[in-house]
From TrEMBL:
Protein name, entry field: Uncharacterized protein
Domain of life: Bacteria
Lineage: Bacteria, Pseudomonadati, Pseudomonadota, Gammaproteobacteria, Pseudomonadales
Amino acid sequence: MYQNRLFCFYRDTSGGISFSVGSGAFWENAQQVPNVLTSDAPSVAALGEQLFLVLRGTEGGDFYHKVLEPSGWQPHQRDPHIKFNGSPSLCIAGGLPTVAVKGLDERLYLFNFHESGWAPVLTSALNDIYEAPAVAGWDRFLVDASLKRSNNHYTTELVRSPTELNDYYQTAGAYTSPPCLVNYHSDLYLIGKRPCDDLGISIFNPECIK
């Protein structure tokens, strides 16, 4: 949601990024984000009057972000320190845009955005991950999720303060799609496609937090 309207972004057939805006009754005609090309699906998150869009460029795993403001799209910016594969996952956590990416070494990395640029938050202990990760701000925590290559189960990581150990939880069953983390009211949901081609939806149990 951005400015009380629903936006849908996707990688179009030209390799650019297009989006449609839903008014509640219908979807408006698609528009294209200017001057960007991407290898994978983008990710977006709204913060006040800004809509942040993050994406992977078409060469070298480069990371870019672009901001939509009431005056229009601002020029895209590249971060030379972030290299990754697949799609990024963006959320707002602690009042900051926060992104999860799968590094070129198949580890999960978290960064958040300040005025000076993107700063590292976490190099996760999770490795050997497959497909794109997911990230969400929930309660007072940052939570990420990834698909393990070796067993196709989702692992969620509840990120604590730097002086504490993070919590890890693994799904009982296997999945065949990248994970999706969604906040709804005060609950956190983990969603993905299962091998039987249906949709698995799990709700995080706060009683698991020690």
